[in-house]
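Troubleshooting: if your tokenizer reports a length mismatch, compare against these two reference records.
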Amino acid sequence: MSRDFPDWVDVDRAVEGRRRFAGSLALGKMPRLLDLLDAPEPDAEIDFEIDAWRDDQGTARLDVRFSGALPLTCQRSLERYLHVIDGSSSIAVIEDEAALAGLPENLEPKLSEKGRLKLIELVEDELLLALPLVPRDPALESLEQDLQAGPLPAAPVEEEASPFAALAGLKRGRSDRGSD
């Protein structure tokens, strides 16, 4: 785990100083995420960057970017695969729930604890939100596209005589005789 960040951040100081926090986090440091992964290697890492700043409305903002690969279980094949994750989000740090009303919809709210945030938990939250609801290996998607390219030519099928067709023929024969 490379570190260029503290465990806890004073949000106001980070925002006023327009601080950038960056590093790599071992999966083993994120227990909630670890529980959702398929046979993870605790030493495997996720890279992240967080930029702190204040917008024109005076809201403390954090721009979070993350990338890496997470081992998941494909729900189609039930096989393990590495899910490449590369995402970003814009977070508005708020002091209380009353501040939610004034936030734009494009911002994710994050409630701070007495003006402080734990960076590892922040990154873990963003990774949890970025996980697919139904993990599917992209390699299987290309196989599915190949199958959808067109149907296989159908083998010629010999038509069997329908027993009802024979009955219909007999019935027609009787009705023809009755009119004589």
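Reference record two:
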Amino acid sequence: MQQWFELKQGKRLFLGGSSNLQAAREVAGQCACFAEDDEDEQIDDVTRSCYNCQYRRWLSEGFQCLGPISE
């Protein structure tokens, strides 16, 4: 899962950008910290996706994960 994130200026950035649905679903499927966001904030049709997580914060180049780091 870590291969999809980069720590940059103290932010854990998702390297799949804002449109890699497959990667976002894969990562969320392995993440013990996933928490479903409000339905009106979700953008992926598959619920368990980083794009639908309440710990996701959108940035111009994708999103930052604010969830606790799971090992």
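Descriptive notes for reference record two:
- The chain has a mean pLDDT of 93.
- Residues 21-30 form the longest helix (10 residues).
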